[in-house]
Write a structure and sequence with these properties.
- The chain has strands at about 1-5, 10, 15-25, 30-40, 45-50, 55-60, 65-70, 75-80, 90-100, 110, 115-120.
- With about 120 residues, it is an all-beta fold.
- The strands form two sheets. Strands 2, 4, 5, 6, 9, 10 and 11 form a seven-stranded mixed β-sheet that branches. A four-stranded antiparallel β-sheet has the order 1-3-8-7, with no helix packed on it.
- Strand 7 (about 65-70) and strand 8 (about 75-80) form a beta hairpin.
Amino acid sequence: VQLQAYGGGLVQAGGSLRLSCAASGRTFSTLAMGWFRQAPGKEREFVAAISRRGVSTYYADSVKGRFTISRDNAKNTVYLQMNSLKPEDTAVYYCAASTSAYGISPAIYDYWGQGTQVTVSS
């Protein structure tokens, strides 16, 4: 499975960005998907996850109410809509795919994209 994340950039606090992650190499609807992020000097942390058909989602408390994860199985793509961005959201964002369940632990995920930088200025 190959994952290609894109859509990052520089945005002012309070602004919005939408990240996309295109998957290939496996039937997309068999993959649970997640987004993680890693800020400089910090460990990678969970952001959001979505089940195979998009029925169930889960969010980190730090982004709940501001971020929305969604997927389009016809386009083999998962999205992360990020609103009301804060400087503390600055990080490299990674998409990940799981052939089993979706969840908050990075260990659940079998495949990872290359990451896309999100920088939020104050």
